[in-house]
Amino acid sequence: xxxxxxxxxxxxxxxxxxxxxxxxxxxxxxxxxxxxxxxxxxxxxxxxxxxxxxxxxxxxxxxxxxxxxxxxxxxxxxxxxxxxxxxxxxxxxxxxxxxxxxxxxxxxxxxxxxxxxxxxxxxxxxxxxxxxxxxxxxxxxxxxxxxxxxxxxxxxxxxxxxxxxxxxxxxxxxxxxxxxxxxxxxxxxxxxxxxxx
Length: 197
Known about the structure:
Elements: E1 14-19, E2 24-28, E3 36-42, E4 45-49, H1 52-59, E5 69-71, E6 77-84, H2 99-104, H3 113-122, E7 135-137, E8 161-166, E9 170-176
């Protein structure tokens, strides 16, 4: 059985989708350059969530690639990166932007990925115990030789995508990152490219 549904994640907003084991979700970067924060939770227990630190330990790399599993904080495989037509540049180190981050810059009531996670889950009447570190899909944040994190524009082009396949019943949340303050980002009317957190 094939079920196809298109869900648009508006600029600066978040959306959640429920996946049964074996189902897939395709995240398409429709305009290019957009960073998307992603979370996954065990469908019947939101205390078990996709964990970047556990995933790094299990796959032995800083960034997942096609064919890799994405693990939970209890080392359960939640998702598999089945396809990736982008250059394969993704980040697992940076936390989600949040209201406090924007308040530090003098911006009150600025949209954030942490708040988008909450709002998206509330559409299903759910609330996560906390905001885990997201899988920052398409974010280009390499580690320099001296250990600092560089932030450069993502190389993803319009139409490129990542396909994630659920290994168990899972709730996946995507946030079109609204960071538009720090360079090299610049806000636009149609999207908010966001290579920084």
